[in-house]
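ingest -> fold -> write
write: protein_1
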Amino acid sequence: MPPAKITALRAREALFPATYARPGEAVLLMDRTDAKSSRYYDQACRKGLEVLMPGSMPDWSRYTVSPWGWNHQIAKFLEINCPGVLGVPSADALDSLRRLSHRRTAARALSLLDPALRIGVEIPVEMSDADEAVRYYIAHKNLFVKAPWSSSGRGVLRTDDLELRHVQPWIRGIVRSQGSVMLEPVYDRKLDFATEWEIRNGVASFLGFSVFETSRRGKYHGNVTGSQTMLMKLITDHAPTFDMQYVDAQKRMLEALIGPGYTGPAGIDMMVFGEGRIHPCVEINLRKTMGLICIV
């Protein structure tokens, strides 16, 4: 169950898809809320969007769904409230997506990239033994410890200013609930940015760059808006050696690792750290991202 703040956010921003929906499409609200009070309502009207409520349509087979991202909970919600709606993945496909969404996928992706493109970057370590993970933390201290599945900085623990009594139960809880933890060093981060992709029929198509802001502890704060030229300049101002060879390498990696089992949007979070060094794959998001929405 999501926290109350997240549920409130979902209701408040329910019409946000109006910002990127195409004229004539529809927006499905997961909660019964007053759409006219939304700050996006006028935009929905200008585009001629239908605003649909759960259970409000007799024939859902007219619609094909495209949520922010997929999981079993959303699929079940649609099956119950929108019977006959098109585009809901099978249970097997959702299981496959869950496996691909594990943070070990980003670690595997990093290992597939040319070592020359990840100088100074360590491949994250996965540990399924909580005692072993705690010993690793004690030996290294300055770490990000990450749950296998989480988003927007939730499920991420920065340990450099914490004590063992804080870190140990957190590690044990994640291993107990999700089976393992991922451990990686803290880098001297200068800039967070990402590449945005669409994967279809095994082919990864590059859509553009995004730049975003996070807290010291890795929680997402927001995106920088601007043209692709402006965003690229912002990236190269921090990392003068950055060029399209990183994008080309990521394309090959996505088509080898993700393309055979996934269709849809993807975002690869990256980082500039130290004196212009580049981390080419911090996270892989197999869903829509705010960075993607900023460039569509």
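write: protein_2
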Amino acid sequence: MFTIKSSSEFMADIKALDERLKNIRINSIEVDRAEHKVRYNFICDQAVDEELNKKILEEAEKISSPIFREVQISVKKIVANDELINTEIYRFLTANYVSISIFLQPTDIISVVVGDNVKYTIRLTKDGVDYVNKNRVIQKLNEHLSKLFCSDFVGNVDIKEREETISLLDDNVYREEIQKIEHRTIKVKDVIVIDDENIGDLALYIEDAEQGNVTVCGTITDIQERKTKNDKPFLIINIDDTTGKTGGVYFSKKNTFHKIKELAVGDAIIARGNIGDYNGRRSFTFDKINRCTFPTDFVKKDKYKKSAPKNYTQIFPTPARETVKIKSVFDVEEVLPAELTEKTIVVFDLETTGFDHLNHGITEIGAVKMVNGKAVEQFTTLVKPDYRITEDNAKVTGITEEMVKDAPKIASVMPDFIKFIDGCTLVAHNAEFDMKFLKRFAGASGYEIKNPVIDSLELARQTLPELKHHDLHTVADHFSIVFHHHRALSDAYATSEALVEMMKIKNS
């Protein structure tokens, strides 16, 4: 019997089968669309015999969609030991955090296994410790390790004595090299020193700037002078480097503030500062500013693009649910147009903090995968944005700051979503809007979206000319599709149902 359960409910049922399974975890789910097979890969710290293996398979079969003709499971015994854990911590840090890992040695990682718990310490320079704490690296590392080993992890960082007096994170000698390793850069011209001759002429793309100390450049789009409560003057400056926009405050400096005040809209600057959160919004605090000339021949370079990951790591697809429509179009046995059956389609929707893809973030992703014109899988997650969710925005989407406070960031979600859409045709209602956000955040994670795209809004205009409006709500009402508007997964399901109906009209 097919039963819809959450992943936590499913794992609770598995663990209840036998005491030996108290620490079992699901590592990955493999779906073979062509053969209609699904395979659940588990890890466990105890050996599993044939009888227990059969019980686990029975539970997996209960929650698997009837679309799968065959359900398989694999249970690997993996016992955490300090050597394996140290190796994986070192690999994870060097692969994901170049700026703190260059001076990291394998001997700087110390772990102790105590029963089902693992405690580990990472020894870093003070700058490295600050970076780890600011960017929640330990939390991300714990989540990663928990998917590989049947243990609970507690990590911390400790300051080690510097072997040299050079810090990779703040020393000017290495700053440009870090940016070359991690990010794309713009080389400005004709630098006129105001604040600091060591800023140089190489700046990070604003599009690539995330957190921490960075050097950026751009043309000033707005500059205003304000005063603090203590009557101390400061400037609010906004800049644009054509890849993105940022802005923030510049506080007065005795020797140079009068020169910075002379800057005007249209002037180009190169600036060093810190990107962080201010009242829940992403903001840049200017530290040092020099004048410059923005290169007239600047052409944005593409990042090195990664291929889709082999496995899901954080957000796992689940079998598609039945739609809320009384009689779902997916349940009707009929011959569907080739445009639906000859390709795998992912219908998706994004909820965001606003309309400008360069200055707002994603708060929710919902997607439905269609094979042979029928929904087979769904992908859904809330996302914690780097931008504030306003009260007006929360009223529209139903998503609040409280709801996303523990949700993953878009950078950790995007690899799984890229895997989910790999090789598929994408469909969205008003696709231009969603694709701008998707391409921006996929690009920030090193992925390029080249999927074919169908805009169901344009399709609605073609196939339903009698309607005065073609927004999703109107189209859904036309086809008697009931859904919770402005929640991503519900919108995706409504769009997928409408897509089937419109394709039938188009090909009739």
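write: annotation protein_2
The mean pLDDT is 84.
The chain is about 30% helix and 30% strand.
pipeline exit 0
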